[in-house]
Design a protein that fits this description.
- The chain is of the alpha+beta class and about 375 residues long.
- It has two domains: about 45 residues, no CATH class; about 280 residues, Bira Bifunctional Protein, Domain 2 (BirA Bifunctional Protein, domain 2).
- Helix content is about 45%, strand content about 20%.
- The strands form two sheets. It has a nine-stranded mixed beta sheet, sandwiched between helices.
- A hairpin with a 5-residue loop joins strand 9 and strand 10.
- It is globular.
Length: about 375
């Protein structure tokens, strides 16, 4: 039994109200529940002394200030926006978003997001905020032309808060700054949206890392890996793997459902050769593998020409992104001056605008770079 379920049983026993959860979550209207909780917290706050507030400030990991100087973060943001093509509109979002946004779009557990009693939640992912704005603009375009394929390109730099305990994961913190892109549009056939969108996003990020090398942020041995999350979804279903367990292990480098189940598919490869295709046939994942081949055959040569020192390949064991990405996804990793490798950039295709606009023709590519991680781990060492 989880800690939360144990706590709920204890609360119900203590209050002697067997239907307490149902009353709060189903019987009371959102407005009435909000009024009740506002009153409860008002009374609790009245009882707090200043020294208790100070204690929380020093101990609560959710309110601890960022370890990176704000000057550094602003300076890095400025470099990013100088490099960003003007066709990407820059959005300054509210720190909160509609309650349930992340769960409705990405299926992440609501326990990982800070919900508030005002029927909003603190932004945990800048790409979902970009998605809502992109869907709003796309809806206006579709109102004028129901077949509009005009692309909406948006960007933002946002501080995000997540409730998972990241203290044991190097480089991760409870709240962090990230820069994100979103391209929303319509399916125009032949994987054209996916190919062009991927080349555009990756081209920007790789160009940015090149630019930053001359401005105090050093990245070495940069590697781009693309994946199709449908491969992992197929393995999870075929071997009856717990999706909940798989979701908890996405940041665990020692957890590999492919190796643990003896799946005959290599992990990181530079090309989709006969060995890979033979394994794909036995696992019935030919379609996503063919999709990766079509995309990479168009995107990789164009990027290799611009960035000859970057390594390009495929991560066929990718776990991060189940229930989040729809098919195509990518990650960019790099080493710092001390030889430590970190994932810096992540992105992929999702069905979020399809859900919001009730149209299977809608397409969405989102991506992000951990700017705070970049500032913290990749700043050139002072001589």
């Amino acid at each position: 039994m989880s800690k939360i379920k144990k706590a709920l049983k204890r609360i119900i026993r203590k209050t002697e109200m067997e239907n307490l959860i149902e009353v709060l979550s189903e019987v009371l209207s959102p407005t009435d529940l909000q009024s009740l909780l506002l009153h409860v917290f008002e009374k609790r706050v009245d009882a707090l002394a200043p020294n208790e507030i100070f204690k929380q400030y020093r101990q609560n990991r959710f309110v601890t200030p960022c370890a990176v100087s704000q000057r550094e973060i602003v300076r890095l943001d400025n470099e990013i926006y100088q490099a960003l093509p003007p066709k990407f509109t820059a959005i300054e979002f509210s720190p909160v978003i509609a309650l349930g946004t992340n769960h409705a779009l990405t299926s992440v557990n609501q326990k990982t997001v800070l919900s508030t009693i005002r029927n909003v939640e603190v932004i945990a992912d800048p790409t979902t905020a970009l998605t809502l704005e992109g869907a709003r603009i796309r809806s206006e375009l579709l109102a004028k032309n129901c077949r509009s394929s005009e692309r909406v390109r948006l960007s933002t730099s946002q501080r995000n808060l997540r409730l998972q305990d990241f203290r044991k994961i190097p480089g991760f913190t409870q709240h962090f700054r990230a820069f994100a892109l979103a391209t929303a549009g319509r399916d125009i056939g032949h994987e054209k949206f996916e190919r062009q969108g991927l080349a555009e996003h990756l081209g920007f990020y790789l160009g940015l890392l090149t630019r930053l090398k001359g401005r105090d942020w050093i990245t070495k041995n940069v590697r781009v890996d693309i994946s199709d999350i449908r491969i992992t979804e197929r393995i999870i279903a075929h071997y009856d793997v717990s999706r909940e367990e798989a979701g908890r292990q996405t940041q665990n480098p020692d957890f590999d459902i492919f190796r643990s189940h003896g799946v005959p598919l290599p992990s990181n490869v530079s090309d989709l050769d006969g060995t890979v295709k033979k394994a794909a046939a036995s696992l019935e994942i030919e379609k996503p593998l063919e999709f990766l081949g079509i995309v990479s055959d168009w995107v990789f040569p164009r990027l290799k020409q611009r960035f000859p020192k970057v390594a390009f390949g495929f991560d066929l064991h990718r776990l991060a992104g189940i229930g989040y990405y729809q098919n195509l996804c990518f990650k960019v990793t790099a080493e710092n001056s001390r030889g430590e490798r970190f994932p810096l950039i992540d992105g992929g295709m999702s069905d979020w605008t399809q859900k919001l606009l009730s149209s299977r023709k809608e397409r969405l590519l989102t991506s992000g770079i951990g700017t705070e991680l970049l500032a913290k781990k990749f700043t050139a060492e002072k001589k």
